[in-house]
Amino acid sequence: MSRFFHGDSSSESSSSDEEELYSEEEEEQSEEESEEDSEESSGSDDEKDAATGAKRFIKGESSDEESDTEDVRVVKSAKDKRLEEVEGTVKLIENAEKINDWAVISAGKYSSLAYGTDPCDGTEFDKLNRQVVKLMQSGSTPKIYVKAIADLEDFMNETIAKSKVSTKKMNATNARGLNAVKQRIRKNNKDYATQIEQYREDKTGFMESDEDEEAVTVERPSRPSQRLVLDDEAGDGEGFSTVGRGGKTLQYTPESILKHLRTIIESRGKKNTDRNEQIRVMEKLYEVATTPYQRIRVLLALISTRFDLTSGAASFMSQEQWKLSVDSSSYSYSLEFDGVFRQFCLHHIRAEHEFNTLLQVLESNPDYVVIENAEEWEDDEKPPTLQAGEKLKIPGSIVSFVERLDDELTRSLQHIDPHTAEYIERLADEGALYTKIVRGMLYLEKLAKDEKLQTPQESINRIIIRRLEHVYFKPSQVVTILEDNTWKTIPTSLNSRITPRGKADASALVHTLCTYLYQHSEGIIRARAMLCQIYFLALHDQYYRARDMMLMSHLQETINSFDINTQILFNRTLVQVGLCAFRAGLIYEAQNSLQEICGSGRQKELLAQGVMIQRYSQVSPEQERLERQRQLPFHMHINLELLECVYLTCSMLLEIPLLAQTGSSPDLKKRIISKTYRRMLEYHERQIFTGPPENTRDHVMQASKALAAGEWKKCSDFIHSIKIWDLMSHPEDIKKMLSEQIQEEGLRTYLFTYAPFYDTLSVSTLASMFELPERKVAAVVSKMISHEELAAALDQVNSAIIFRKGVELSRLQSLALTLSDKASGLIESNERTLEQRTQGTAGAFERSGQQGGRGGRTGGRGRGDSRGGRGGAGNRRGGQQFTGGALDSRQGGAVRA
């Protein structure tokens, strides 16, 4: 029992009440233990300074009492213990100075790595500062600390001076430690400049002064438990009052605004900070503010704090929250907002209103400027005064507020169900946000005119690219309406030098913004501006301009070095260029542009329009979260069903003639233009029973079967019955273009399939079969002959096609050619494997095979390399041999037999 209670406290064991409870044996035992403890404590205390707090505590007692209480334990207060800790740390720093060991002194992470200590513990300088902060809570700054930091700064200056003169270089660890101390010591010593000067003037007198230091009461920031009295009667008319635990009332007046703002700003990011309480304080501070400077400072802090509320606690804001309206003259908190999301919504709406108010204050007071590179005003007792002819710079970032508002809008749109009316109502807020972007751009333009302000060009570029990203994917009619409504809400006294008022033409606006970014930016912003302009041109059916810009930019060569969001924009632009080529009737160009995206089977991921959930995926929850954050709002999506329909239709028009050509000529090497289409076609052929088409893919597969059989009208009907064409502009023109393409490719397929059975064939007969003009038929046949796709001659006098019979291959020769194809395929696969193991370009052969797609058709539509024939066929081996007419691979040799 005595051992247990003894460890608790020596003062309690020595009290008279407890002595009566103990037995004589227990008293003897406790005395022996106290003697041992006192010897150990006295032995450890001898190593320390004699003038510590513990010694002073015993000094006031008489000698008789000391002799009588030799066995009494020494009791130290918490303040004395902390002072001893400070003295011990100071000794370690002084020892490190003697051996010039800056790694131990430094305030960085280098010494912790070098000496194997915990990086969170810091080093001796950090440790000293933490100990002094705790000690200052119950008194003034200890003089030994002032002496230590003053001597450390002097020693640092001497070391730097010696290192510049000395030819011997300091080792890397010591140099890093010296740099770390250099960065921290001067900033730290500013707070104790007066005491350091007194110490340097009279070092001995400063340390020997035995004057009692008055206890300094440390003002602490308001705790979350404090409540605000928002009634007007609670204050004195000049401000409002805060009631703390002690019942004391704190007055908030215009003179104390800066001091309270400083307290709030310093508490940002700390735990157990009630941001709602801080927001209420700043709202009342804004009402109390009398000068423009005070209003600007309060608004900057208030908007930032509101964004802190929505940063991590809520992932999105529902449409119901955004329906709430805010009265510009009232800041009352209603009980209707009973949920966390409602409060976030309210704060975000007020942030938009307060940002608008901030711009109005800045526009009406041009002498006050909010700029990023301004120095912060340190004196909270008195506000700065304006000098004649100069402008007062206030640290802040208008661009950051604009970007945060834009990000919050995007985040809310990501999580609202796009198939409801709520999404449309929420999307209407984009107009108000666009107005704020334009207004912020006008303010930055105004600052850029003044050369003394040195406005960063990067800020203007950031806000212009935000404006461009709200415009590039919209039709020109929508952009025109958006611009008109925006300039109506902006005061007539404001105008833009980059995009003047009154010029609402969408094409001119996009061109102007992009040209400005080309001239004044570089890197990611310039690349995104170029992609936005290409997307806009492709959206408005300017294919050749979009294609030329894409090729001249060379972005396809460097896009892998950009961030993921820029890569997503590149994929979207590439897809839009392919759709534009399809609308222009350029089938090969469209298929070639869409091949990389649609052929991968990962359209959702590549276009940021959804997350593909795979069965055996190795995606971590963190990666999935980042993937979902990158998703685009629904109104920016490209219709994936339309994209697949266009891709499969283009692949059908290219692959069916190619299959017919390779099926009737076994001596040709196999090529594949679209593996995805071939795989779907083979799966469709394996089906025993195929019913009527139900979706887009079934329609295209049935049309492919009809086209291969020469039934071009049936193929055209299947394609026209796809309802997805109605989503494109001018659907009738699209269907007419597809009918012409199907007629032409049907003619080519028929000639490839049945050429071995004809000696001569009339052009007029072909024209009547496919309902084409004779001139068109003659042009198609001439092109096939010139590209060596068809062994024939065109008799223009008799308007007939004369087929040349080549040497008939025997069955053995056909099998020999097939064997050589398989051997060449094995050689190619071996070379690919070798390149992969030697870190070569594994996909070189595949890329070379895909160059040009419909090879050889260089005339007319500018289509790639040689397309077939015995002279210029590609090197790709095919899948199932698909012949026109019967759709059976086993009949490939029967045509020649």
TrEMBL record:
The gene is NIP1. Keywords: Cytoplasm, Initiation factor, Protein biosynthesis. Component of the eukaryotic translation initiation factor 3 (eIF-3) complex, which is involved in protein synthesis of a specialized repertoire of mRNAs and, together with other initiation factors, stimulates binding of mRNA and methionyl-tRNAi to the 40S ribosome. The eIF-3 complex specifically targets and initiates translation of a subset of mRNAs involved in cell proliferation. GO terms for cellular component: eukaryotic 43S preinitiation complex; eukaryotic 48S preinitiation complex; eukaryotic translation initiation factor 3 complex. One of its GO terms (molecular function) is translation initiation factor activity. Belongs to the eIF-3 subunit C family. HAMAP family: eIF3c. Residues 634-808 form the PCI domain. Residues 850-861 have a biased composition (Gly residues). GO terms for biological process: formation of cytoplasmic translation initiation complex. Component of the eukaryotic translation initiation factor 3 (eIF-3) complex. InterPro entries: EIF3C (IPR027516), EIF3C_N_dom (IPR008905), EIF3CL_C (IPR058999), PCI_dom (IPR000717), WH-like_DNA-bd_sf (IPR036388), WH_DNA-bd_sf (IPR036390). It is found in: Cytoplasm. This is Eukaryotic translation initiation factor 3 subunit C. The keyword Protein biosynthesis applies.
